[in-house]
Amino acid sequence: MQSLTLLEILIAIGFVAILFSFVRDYWMKKKKTNVPQTATPDAGRSSITLPLQLQAYERLVVFMERISPEQLVYRLGKIDLPAAELYALMVQDIREEFAHNVSQQIYVSQVAWDAVVHAKEYMISQLNLLMGQLPAEARSADLCKQMLSHYLQQQPSPLQVALDVLRKEARKLM
């Protein structure tokens, strides 16, 4: 009878050990599935910000294109106005476009943003310079001709430099 009791104790100990092993494995697996799976701390953030960054570069490229002399002349230069009125419209358009895109600076590098700001300031300063060279009675067509011919002589222009910076940085993200 005593040998039977010893055998029963050994079986009970074995059973408890096996049961403990199963319970431990179960809890370990459950614990692993409850932990959020991120490879790196930046992995979740980059999947959210990457599309925003690419969109920012895209919007700034569109901004650069919209304030180019060709586009300004195409959009605003068709109206027969005194040159001073067209000048005011162009400067206002550049400033409004810039204000519309100013928030994009948080998604692009400082180099890219500085290039965009420099290009905007360049365009306004060029318009100021050209207006100073035109006679008071000049018409919008005169300003447009001056603007386009002056722009073609300035290669590479700050607009082109900014576009190159934006495109290069956007390609790095892709």
Automatic annotation (TrEMBL):
Transmembrane segments: 6-23
Top-rank taxon, per record: Bacteria
Keywords of the record: Membrane, Transmembrane, Transmembrane helix
InterPro entries registered for this protein in UniProt: DUF7935
Record-given protein name: Uncharacterized protein
Natural source organism: Thermoflavifilum thermophilum
